[in-house]
Amino acid sequence: MAVYLLQRVGYVVVVMVIMSVLVFLATHALPASTAEVILGQYATPETIAALERKLGLTRPLLEQYSDWASGVLRGDLGRSLVLETPIAPVLWAALGRSAVLAISALTVVSFLGIALGVVAAVRRGRLVDHLASAFTFVGLSVPEFFWGLMLILLLGSYLQWFPTSGYGLPDEGLWSYASHLVLPVMALTIGLLAHVSRLTRSSMIEALDSNYVKVARARGVSEWTVTLRHALRNAMLPTITVLAQDVGFLIGGIVAVETIFANPGVGRLLVFALERHDLPLMQAAILVMTAVQSLANLTADLLYGFFNPRIRYGRSIA
Amino acid sequence: MVDQSPDDEVDVPERRIRSIPPRVVVFSLLLGLMIVAALGADRLAPYPFDQMHVADRLKGPSLTYLAGTDEYGRDVFSRTLYGSRLSLSLGFVATLIGLSLGVPLGLFAGYVRGWADELLMRALDVVMSFPSLLLVLLIIAVTPPSLAKTAVAIGILFVPPVTRVTRSIALDLMSGEFILAAQARGERVSYILLHELLPNAWPAIVVEGSLRVAFAILLGAVLSFLGFGVQPPAADWGLMIATARDFVEAAPWMAIAPGLGMSLTVISVNVLGDGLREYFDPKLGGRR
């Protein structure tokens, strides 16, 4: 297990280094240089050149990268050009708000998705299964932002049950805080729910047809116990991996969902940075989101290894 | 005994001629309709997509404006029809880019195996560890947005998964005797890849491709929704929905019409892809 652990952690480190180089290079390929963005309409070739020298943008790329990277490692993400403040505090606050959304969505998806998958597998070919399968296609085919808008229309402006934008401040009470989360979390949940329930269904069907389940049934173990203790426990393995994969989808989804619900999380911060060509903010936001995804992948790999001893000696995890 | 799953039947040739599930037929027709709408938008749309009827702003659906009008008095139905053109061409072009790079890479990796294959797969793993939306944003945000650039960015994003799928099929096929026979005949590598591996890998590639089309349409919609894809005044579904956010109470049809167009298109492509998968390989039917 120690070798496996080191391997996976090492892999994440390599991925992060490559990502940081990519992010750094991509933002340096921008047509408008950082100096031009800062100077805006007052830019003249002379002032641009002067500011570039002052900001150290004329130095070799490698030197700039190592400066930036060592700053990031020390927790210094640089200064935002548009906000004109250090990035780190802004980004951590936004990341916290996004994490609340993401964790709520993942929790709902884990419970509901697995439950739905199990029910569909047990009642295979029945009405429930067909409904679940129809839901799967719809869930996977409609993007989060359209769900978001439909939820705003139905539960927000028509029924007026939940607020449709912004987020609740902690001092406005728990209900205000929670009610602002309901619609974004629902919008994030639907697609992932389809994904998870579909996978759980197919691995449950496989497990329910397996010999150990047949033996358990033959021993007279109750159907309830067979389903939950024998089949589900084994069917969970692929679900764990897919949940981690879904963190990637969630990161994509959160950008759109935060935009539509005006939730000031890291996704909205990234859109803001991209719109205003705020390079340092853009770099920091993308890097942090990539790090989150890498950590999610790592967690999945470790859980997978923990639950499945065979994998520890395998070469790759598909 | 528990109920026998249909997959347990062995006579594979029988399965090839079994009837196509009704939902596949229905959604294929729907997709066909969408393609017709995309090709014939100029003739089918009641109004040009950018024609403004200033007196009829934010009007609800009626016989004159089938899906109402938007904040400039443009016909939402016509714009939705035109939107299918942008979305479908983005979906197909991006997928073609992904396939044209990923399929040869995958066939090659599966054929040579060894260190070259290992190196390629590790490199692709790294790219795939990047959240897909962020990767595309990174590619297109650095220069002014355009439809062609979005298609290229999404196409590049598709290379790693397509390569993986193709490689795993190629690896499977490599154990076949027909490959051994071709090698024994002294055929060139390019011949084996193109004439032995590719024809046999084709069904799985088509299935993968169809799912990619759906994904590309969704991703393109998200990008233009965020403002980094197609730019106004183009009639794009994502863009229309983004504008509709500000008028959701006054004019919900502004969001519903393009949303419905997009959802039905993507559902059709997904159902079709799933149907193809079951058709080519009944055993895979319930997976994924």
What is the helix fraction of residues of chain A, given as a range?
over 70%
The percentage of residues in β strands of chain B lies in: under 5%
Oligomer: heterodimer
Shape of chain A: globular
**How would you characterize the largest beta sheet of chain B?**
none
Description of the molecule:
The complex is a heterodimer of chains A (318) and B (288). Chain A is mainly alpha-helical. Chain A is 77% helix and 0% strand. Chain A has helices at 2-28, 34-39, 45-55, 61-73, 87-122, 127-141, 144-158, 174-208, 211-218, 223-260, 266-276, 279-307. Chain A starts with a helix and ends in an 11-residue tail after the last helix. Chain B is elongated. Chain B is mostly helical and 288 residues long. Classes of the chains: A mainly alpha (318), B mainly alpha (288). At the A-B interface, helix 1, helix 6, helix 7, helix 8 and helix 10 of A face helix 5, helix 6, helix 9, helix 10 and helix 11 of B.
Which key terms come to mind for this protein?
heterodimer, A: 318 residues, mainly alpha, 0% strand, B: 288 residues, 11 helices, disordered N terminus, disordered C terminus
Summarize the structure.
The complex is a heterodimer of chains A (318) and B (288). Chain A is an all-alpha fold. Chain A contains twelve helices and no strands.
Write the layout of secondary structure elements.
The complex is a heterodimer of chains A (318) and B (288).
Chain A: H1 2-28, H2 34-39, H3 45-55, H4 61-73, H5 87-122, H6 127-141, H7 144-158, H8 174-208, H9 211-218, H10 223-260, H11 266-276, H12 279-307
Chain B: H1 12-16, H2 22-39, H3 41-44, H4 76-112, H5 114-128, H6 132-141, H7 147-174, H8 177-184, H9 189-226, H10 237-244, H11 253-280
